[in-house]
Amino acid sequence: MRGFSRRLAAVAAAVLTVGAAAPAPAQAHGRQVYHKVGYFTQWSIYGRNFQLSKVEASGAAARLTHLNYAFGTVTADGRCASADPWADWGTSFPAELSVDGVADVPGQPLAGNLNQLAELKAKHPGLRVLISLGGWSGSTYFSDAALDEPSREKFVASCVDLWLRGNLPGLAPGVAANIFDGIDLDWEWPGSAGNTGNVIRPEDKRNFTLLAAEFRAQLDRLGRDAHRHYDLTAFLPAAPAKITAGFEGTKIFRYLDFGTVQGYDFHGSWETRTNQQSALRVPAGAPDDPDFSAENAIDAWVAAGASRRELVLGIPYYGQGWTGVTGGGNGRFQPASGPAPGVFAAGTEDYKTLATLPGKGYRVYRDWRAGNSWLFDGTTFWTYDDPAQILQKTAYIRGAGLGGAMMWSLDGDDAHASLTRTIAAGLWAPRRS
Q1: Where are the alpha helices (DSSP H) in 263-386?
Q2: Is the full-model pTM beyond 0.90?
Q3: How many domains in the chain?
Q4: Catalytic residue, candidates 188, 214, 295, 349
Q5: How far is CA 137 from CA 171, 210, 372, in A?
Q6: Structural domain harbouring 275
Q7: Residue 349 falls in the annotated catalytic set
Q8: Which end of the chain is more exposed for a tag (fewer CB within 10 A), N or C?
């Protein structure tokens, strides 16, 4: 396995070298096209100092098929709203932080991230930009919004009006029209626990399907008027219990273009023992049985009635970490005293930071059979995905017949978009004869 490890690492390095110069392949007739979905978080423009201009400058934008803007919120009265109007359409960007290199000026019709998205689309007309609704901390009232037919109709109509028709409060009618190409549902989770305080009902499972149907109907009506197709996607859980509690697997894909499956947070620093957070397969010797893995998550969705081509595997651009690790060895499956210190939060760290650790007391460990990599310095342990690991995942995506890869989130990548370049190269396919 050491020889295979060296070969795969060398291939990953070659992928980055080629990807640095090569543009993304055209999505022309006759090509096998995989979805490459990157999340951009509205709050990343603050402390993380990560703007959409960096998605463009790094080369990531040219290698995506979809960009999901996270998150729009669901209000207590069952309507769509902005979680941060200042970030979405209020703040101005100077020339050096603007996608088109031109500074925003006072009085322009639209500013903020939405204007930057419009500039990004102007450079990449084939890029599909979706508004993601909900998220971990924004799913509190999804159950109420989906409760009955009048609630669903009102909620979906408000989302279409705000995000797709572009009728932003306080601005000219339609000022943000044609920025978004669809809607991504990030209800975490129908029928089962998510963030503290979420409204949860047993009826959520059926109501999620009905909500997706209502979105599909209203998006199609809008699309007929606009002579275009609007995408509808959903973020889907990895845990079989959550799939069973909240999703009618066969029915929901009548309305979704595809679903992105959570391929991370299988384990994390909330636990007292080091583990993997995003392995392809359950590692030998894992202490939990049953356990989570990307393959188990995909198989659970297939068993629930989903087609493999409709499933897009989520890949983390961050790691989960523990410190105070005892027990020796390579550090995996060992007791720990708590979360490892992180730049933005204890227990998590961006890939761009973790990529600097090898050679600074940390050694990279790999389990190719499980599809899992980690860093360990004898005390602190980080489980994460690097380009070599991601290349193995793209091979799995192709071999398993999946629809592509999703990335959470773009701000975790390095300045050269190494992870995104690896995904794009790994999911490139030559023209069919």
Answers
A1: 294-303, 351-354
A2: yes
A3: 1
A4: 188
A5: 27, 23, 28
A6: 33-317+387-426
A7: no
A8: C
